[in-house]
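Please check these two lines:
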Amino acid sequence: MRLDRLKTFAPSLPHATFVKQWGENLVFKIGGKMFLIVSLDGETIEGCAFKCTPADYARLTGEVDGVIPARYNMLKSHWVQLEDPEALAETQFKEQVRIAYDLVKAKLPKKLQAELA
């Protein structure tokens, strides 16, 4: 996926925001919680990581070349890392970003979910 399309799609999800964090990374959030991290090399996507369901985690890391378990403490919370930004077709990537967004939103405190509704 191209960076310009990603910068249009991900923030279009209701109440999604993004910030530049940890150097050259765009961190997309809902309610202050991350659902997608995009590593940049200038204006090019170098890689990204996102939250997924346990089933998607197993499928993506087991069957898709260029998709590995995310580093650090994200491993235990079902985050994957795309080493190759082209590992997923754009439609698949958008679907996974939407799932990541929904998973994180569902874990927000009920009061915050109500405020965002």
Q: What stands out?
A: The chain has a mean pLDDT of 89.
